[in-house]
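Reminder to self: tokens first, then the designed residues, so the page reads top to bottom the way the pipeline ran.
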């Protein structure tokens, strides 16, 4: 099965808010992709450690000028969703579609998500995507789901909060007081701040 990697728009893809991608593919490579094909969607290039996160079905594969890109493709390319979740696009949409170049335009539908544990961990850590898991409780489906409300996030975070509290108690017991625990909390805040700054710089 052929592979298409999505990188920064992976969250939009998984939310069903990205249904087209434009690629600078050689003609010979483009001809390998046909309407109706099922392709693996990766969260980044597999050579760089990417994981398969979904299967998509191709609807059309065409070669078009960027200047013919319709207004609605701001939504279909995933830009609208990424901005909604606070991710700054790496380039300006309007400038992009004024570029006097042609691209392969692949329109597709989301066929199914890949619910592998490693893939989900990658979405959480690399893309900061709020993916939770449920066992049929709280009116949520069994398996993984995208957190859309504060309640969803509370349910998804509950086992990790519980584990965090338990591990904190163990650390306090080992050191005999809260001093080392407070130092670790400080390091955690710095680490999270650095990660957020790094994400903003890449975004």
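Designed residues (203 positions):
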């Amino acid at each position: 099965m052929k592979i298409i990697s999505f990188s920064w728009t992976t969250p939009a893809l998984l939310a069903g808010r990205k249904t087209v991608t434009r690629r600078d593919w050689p003609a010979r490579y483009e001809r390998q992709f046909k309407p109706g094909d099922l392709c693996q969607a990766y969260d980044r290039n597999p050579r760089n450690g990417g994981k398969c996160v979904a299967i998509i079905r191709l609807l059309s594969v065409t070669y078009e000028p960027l200047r013919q890109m319709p207004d609605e493709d701001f939504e279909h390319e995933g830009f609208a969703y990424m901005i909604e979740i606070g991710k700054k696009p790496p380039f300006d949409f309007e400038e992009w579609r004024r570029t006097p170049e042609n691209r392969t335009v692949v329109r597709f539908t989301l066929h199914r998500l890949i619910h592998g544990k490693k893939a989900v961990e990658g979405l959480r850590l690399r893309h900061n995507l709020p993916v939770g898991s449920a066992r049929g409780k709280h009116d949520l489906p069994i398996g993984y789901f995208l957190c859309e409300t504060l309640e969803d996030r509370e349910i998804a975070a509950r086992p990790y909060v519980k584990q965090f509290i338990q591990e904190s108690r163990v650390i306090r017991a080992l050191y005999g007081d809260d001093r080392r625990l407070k130092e670790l909390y400080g390091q955690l805040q710095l680490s999270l701040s650095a990660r957020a700054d790094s994400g903003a710089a890449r975004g």
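The two ends are 30 Å apart (CA to CA).
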